[in-house]
TrEMBL record, chains A, B:
Pfam families: Esterase. This is Esterase. CDD domains: E_set_Esterase_N. The lineage of its organism: Bacteria, Pseudomonadati, Bacteroidota, Flavobacteriia, Flavobacteriales. It comes from the Bacteria. It comes from Flavobacterium cellulosilyticum. GO terms for molecular function: acyltransferase activity, transferring groups other than amino-acyl groups.
């Protein structure tokens, strides 16, 4: 080993000594700006290991942390007052996070913002091995339309986003089937077309003729009875869907307004909600999708079909005759209680002889990459 | 003065002594959560004087400031580590702001976020005396649709938001005129339908039959020639509008594709840009709106019509015959150089005998309330 190299190694060792706990000697230095950064912002960055490097100027701060995936990583301040540091490798896909500056939990000013975890805040995209299926490509794109309406049941203004496929605005004689697609808890109607990339997934599927052109309606799963001021107000989401949203969509858009051309799906809380809505309204829908959730959540107990959802699964033959596609999906790394409750639900379906498709998303947890993959697998089965 | 009142005043004085610099003895204590807060967030708040009160937990911080309207207001920490404080009274309307935590400039986690001032960040709404014209009401609402497209001229994906009025999706035989409406510098295509409330302004105008139902296209005014990597890349926004956006909109939406049914308007930088586009393309548009801007910006000098915009204003009669409505608007509190440059432009129009409408927004500066009012005044004049 020559003298120059020895000196470099010693200096490097000294340099890293103060910070290696945060950075790690073995961090791969191929960081690139995250794909969901604000225009022109260089940080946060992601490397090929899935580590997140963030950076913020806070000259007078005494402690700055990156708060990601339930872990708070200390950042290190340089001579200019700029704090920087890296996380452990993250699983691929989309994650919410925030910065902690001397105890204040705030969005990272480097990213665009997403509604989830009960707040609008920062997100990071760890490039996934299969990211091509939700990539933005030069092919015909559908529209995502913000639709504001007044709901009498909740006595409030509500909003849904409506995806109409490429061609919808020009081919005025065509009518389309509709998928009603719901977000999870502490998320809202923006999730699916933002971090969920539902529009890009369908644009790609439709352009390659893998999915039937369809309308997708993404509404807000939180809907409470008007003037119910109790601590746990009564949810009227099912009534809002059946008596307000569907009639509005059928009047306003060129739908095919029958059960054969309506699907309903959701993720997590949305899977739970839409399963109940599906089973209570088999004359309204004929396709169901449950992504990372079932209506027995959070229980992993054996399901008593006599009482579960008012006995709606008692007659397996009837369910099979009514539901054209019964679809469940789950990430292989999902935490408790999801594998248990979905497993118990599947056992019930098996016992009842109810046909279903079960998809496992490899290596993903209770997160948006699981749900993007679920939509990608589920949508091609609809309206065929 | 009775003894009780004396004691109250003494106690009040002692109480306020530590904080009156920030709060002021005369602050009116009728603060309410801002209308653009995130769901369920109590702060920031606004009082009837237009003061902004913000609050954030930052137990280990040594200095937290509210950075609003070019002034940094020190907040005061309570025993629980929560910082709070108020701004001076702000003029009514919408303002961008941020928090400063020990030197870090970050969004306030209490608000929803808006793109402006070159970043996505916090905004505050000071209720305006005339807020009714942009209020969300129980009447038919149009859609705001996100439209993604690939631009060959810039070799990039671009996006516009398209407002289609109530009834557009149902009345399939109707065709509509189009207003192309542009944002200002350091803003983007989201501005007009978010902080600009263009959709609500038009919903209200159309419902009360004050404006002709129209489509509004809101695109991004930053468009640079493909592969131009120079420090000051060439803007090709005019070419993008004329050869990419308008043909796309006319193909995709039920427009009336002629000059009599096309208007173009913009605010600030967008006024400057759209004025050039208008004058270069009088066969494409017949209505112009310039909100807080003109193409001679920032100069207040007398305009030489022989050279200004290649002599496009030399023949006043020709301009009058081509432009059905030539509309200019400005806030009475706008800073230099806007009154000077708009004034010089008006003088040129007067000298050339060119007919125009000039509107002044009372008490507003170079801000969104000026532009909301401009749109409210301008839109009813179009396509009549």
């Amino acid at each position: 080993m020559n003298r120059f190299l020895t000196i470099v190694i010693i200096i490097s060792s000294l340099y890293f000594q103060t910070s290696w706990c945060q950075v790690g000697l073995l961090t791969v230095d191929d960081f690139k700006p995250s794909s969901v950064n604000q225009l022109g912002k260089q940080y946060p960055q992601v490397n090929s290991e899935g580590r997140v490097r963030t950076s913020i100027s806070a000259p007078q701060a005494t402690k700055v942390q990156l708060d990601l995936g339930g872990v708070k990583y200390d950042l290190v301040k340089d001579g200019n007052g700029v704090w920087q540091g890296e996380s452990d490798p993250q699983v691929e896909g989309f994650h919410y996070y925030q910065l902690n500056i001397d105890g204040a939990s705030v969005p990272d000013p480097g990213t665009i913002y997403f509604y989830g975890a009960g707040r609008s805040g920062s997100g990071i995209e760890i490039p996934a091995v299969d990211q091509d299926f939700y990539a933005l490509k030069d092919l015909p794109h559908g529209l995502v339309s913000e639709n504001i309406y007044f709901s009498k049941l909740t006595n409030s203004f509500r909003r849904c986003f409506v995806y109409t496929p490429a061609g919808y605005t020009e081919n005025l004689k065509n009518r389309y089937p509709v998928l009603y697609l719901q977000h999870g808890s502490f998320e809202d109607e923006t999730g699916w077309a933002s971090q969920g990339k539902a529009n890009l997934i369908l644009d790609n599927l439709i352009a390659s003729k893998k999915a039937t052109p369809m309308i997708i309606v993404m509404d807000n799963g939180y809907a409470y009875k008007a003037n119910d001021t109790s601590l746990r107000p009564e949810s009227v989401f099912e009534q809002v869907v059946i008596t307000e949203i569907i009639p509005m969509i059928d009047a306003q858009f060129r739908t095919i307004p029958n059960r054969e051309n309506r699907a309903i799906a959701g993720l997590s809380m949305g899977a739970n909600q839409t399963m109940r809505i599906m089973m209570n309204n088999l004359n309204t829908f004929s396709y169901y999708g449950g992504f990372s959730g079932t209506a027995n959540y959070p229980s992993a107990d054996v399901i008593d079909v006599a009482t579960f959802l008012d006995g709606k699964y008692k007659d397996g033959k009837e369910v099979n005759s009514k539901i054209k596609v019964f679809w469940l999906g789950l990430g292989t790394k999902e935490p408790t209680p999801f594998p248990g409750s979905v497993g118990a639900f599947k056992n019930m379906l098996d016992k009842q002889g109810i046909k279903y498709t079960f998809y496992e998303s490899p290596g993903t947890a209770h997160e948006w990459l699981t749900w993007r993959r679920c939509l990608y697998q589920y949508a091609p089965l609809l309206f065929k």
